[in-house]
Amino acid sequence: MHTDSMLTSVVYLIVFPGLLFLTVYGLFLQWVDRKLCAVMQNRMGPPWYQPTADLIKLLAKETIIPDACDTLMFKTLPYFAIAAVTSALMLIPLWRTESLFMSFQGNMVVVVYLLTIPTVTFFLAGWSSTSPYSTVGSMRVLTQLFAYEVPLMLSLIGPAILAGSWNLSEISAFFSGQPALIAAQFIGFLVAIISLQGKLERMPFDIPHAKNEIVGGQFTEYSGRLLAYFNLAVDMELVVGAALLSAVFLGGAWGLHGVQGLILFLIKTLAVTFLLALLKVLMARIRIEQMVNFCWKILVPMAMAQILFDIFLKSKLG
Amino acid sequence: MSEFAKEEELKKLLEDKFGTGISAINIQRIRRVWLEAAPEKLVEILEFLKAAGFDHISTITGFDEGENLGAFYHATDTHILATIKVKTPLSSPKLPTITGIFPGAISYERELEDLLGIKIEGLPPGRRYPLDDEFPKDQYPLRKTWKTADFQAARKAAASLIKEAR
Amino acid sequence: MSKITIPLGPQHPALKEPENFMLVLEGEQIENATINLGYNHRGMEKAAEERTFIQNMYLLERVCGICSHSHTTCYVTNVEEAAKAEVPERARAIRTLVGELERVHSHLLWIGVAGYEMGFETLFMYTWRDREQVLDCLELLSGNRVHYSINTIGGVRRDITPEQKNEVLKRINFLEERTKYYIKVATEEPTVRARTADVGKLPYDIAIERGAVGPTARASGVKRDVRKDDPYLIYDKLDFSLITHDTCDVFGRLVVRALELMESYKLIKQVLNYLPEGPITVKVPSRIAPAEALNRYEAPRGEDIHYLKTNGTDKPERLKVRAPTLANLQSVTYMLEGGWLADVPLVIAAIDPCMSCTDRAMVYDRKAGKTQVYDWEDLRKLGIEAYKRRGVDFTKL
User: Fold this and answer.
1) Tens-digit pLDDT profile for residues C137-166
2) Contacts of residue A289 in chain C, CB cutoff 8 Å?
3) Strand B119-121, strand B22-29: pairing
4) What residues in C contact A281, CB-CB < 8 Å?
5) Where in chain A are the domains?
């Protein structure tokens, strides 16, 4: 590989839009989310630097590793979570129509696959901590994974069928070309937003770490630096999830490039965050068995209906 | 005394049923009836009262009268509070359990055991309540002979001993 | 999957008060639950025997932060009954008023806590914001937000002016509107229904058998309310209805409390419009001849019962306090068994537990293991010094 392109790749990975951008934007979205919830709940909410301050505080704190846990797993899992989320971002078209790195058929599936890895690390983290709260939490992580993963994937298939492509860039290009079709994806988008809420383990689906029941859930035994990384991974997942939905359902960059594209990207992810925050404040947390029932009995049929509709639409459009 | 009609009725009912088994039956004021009974009669009286609609034990109040320990059982049909006083000698204080009739009374009985040292016969085993696990098992704080100051002095002495040892 | 035993408390985010539940889980379902109490025993009954009647009033106010008025009213009623003192009607009306405001404050607090426990933080934030209104009313009337200290032996400490009356009425009208909204949210929001319906079942028979009291019992269809059954203060002159519900679950307890709020607003308005003219205190001697008194009070959480025995001195011979939570805790283990782990905090919260009411007796405090023991005097000194450092000196007073 040429030295120049190598250097560009490194800059991509580390600075922009890689780790550094993802961290900063993840923290910013966390603040937006918290502030929005606060305003909706008639509270003040945190100042803009609060998530950063929390991160720095946690990084500086002592990391306690329980004797009973699997030390190697316990220590390395947060890095896996962050790595998986960052890799997923590289495949999503952000402020231009093409993905940053590999634009190939099927990269949508790879993104969904990569986004599953953090959830698996959450499960392993809880399981390797061996405390009762973590164990129950990690069981819930897995149960919940089987609940939301299917509707999420199904909801993404609809647009892919309509666009006739498994490439995220091509899907967003297709929708920027025919904006009217975006409205036809309403049900699919709804299912995707709700499943994403489940994936991010936010209220009303924060069942795996429901603080009133099982304290910190899978992260109960985590502290200091390792907990900071896990929290960061969750924030990054929010960015990537919002970016994925904007690429698949909202037509991505609309063919724009550079700064204009970036602004559009920010607007779209903020809009998705707003919807996620709205879901968070509107409802009470449901039970795990209600979550599974809801996902399989309501979301999956809805997503299926959307797919059937898309197939029908495709045959009409020729 | 039509004002106390219900209370009089209850008094008559109890007198007819138990006769000399109960004593000092007294209508203190409206909705307050007090009586005294022997510990052996307690369960029988409460069973009778429960059948008569007194299906709630508000609480059990333990007391120390010097020679005797004892307890008040406050039963109620929600309107009238019928209080049964039973005594038991300080030398070997014991009372029968009423959890057979009122399962909800279990914590009140544990309180009698823990705070006054009245042995409750037939109480199912369980963790002590309400005192701390480390509290000496042979001390009963609600007895009149138990003084807070003595206990505090003993605690302080023990604490300073530990301090010196360190 | 093997069974997991989960300790819930004495330190747990869902239970801010010290109690412990050992839950044996089979998957997500609870197979067995045992309750351990006594983490917070403060020795109040013993302490009361060493204090005068007036001092005890302030001690008993601290039995519980939320139903502070309930305990003192029950206690002063006992003292007045033993001393055969006739309390002026106006004082009794003011006590009733504060008692009802306290119920409003407690029930609003409970609705918030229930929202929090079911993971509905918005409801929690909203009710607690509105609860400020009633706390302001209490502050306006008594000068304090939580420990109102409005009672004194023989009457009340403060009178109510017409301006105060209007201000309270204004705020109560506002709260009435808000409560209607909460009733709507609680009964119509699907996730709230999903989380509360058929959760923590307590059938009528079991509620009677285990001696449940207050809203917990009333939600199981048990018609028990001391205000109706054994009227104290001026409740026999007021018009209100006894709220019951027959679903026997957490949803029922939510509805009962919400509707009781509406009844309380009604009562507050009636009392404010009734307020007879006259003195607010009567003199009661400090030494009280030997007597016994037994009184009940419908605290926000249920029946509160006090027994008092006097012996001719200025200190009680025996004082017994039974707070409603202790009566209700026996029902909790029944409600938990067979339920879901996710519902545990909600079921426990549904009886509105107040452990500080329940556990009373120990007289010492420890710090840093056993190496340092503070007794009452030491603690007092510490407190005085701490305030001195901040520039406030109480010793001069």
Assistant:
1) 999 998 888 888 888 888 898 889 989 999
2) 28, 340
3) unpaired
4) 121-122
5) 64-317
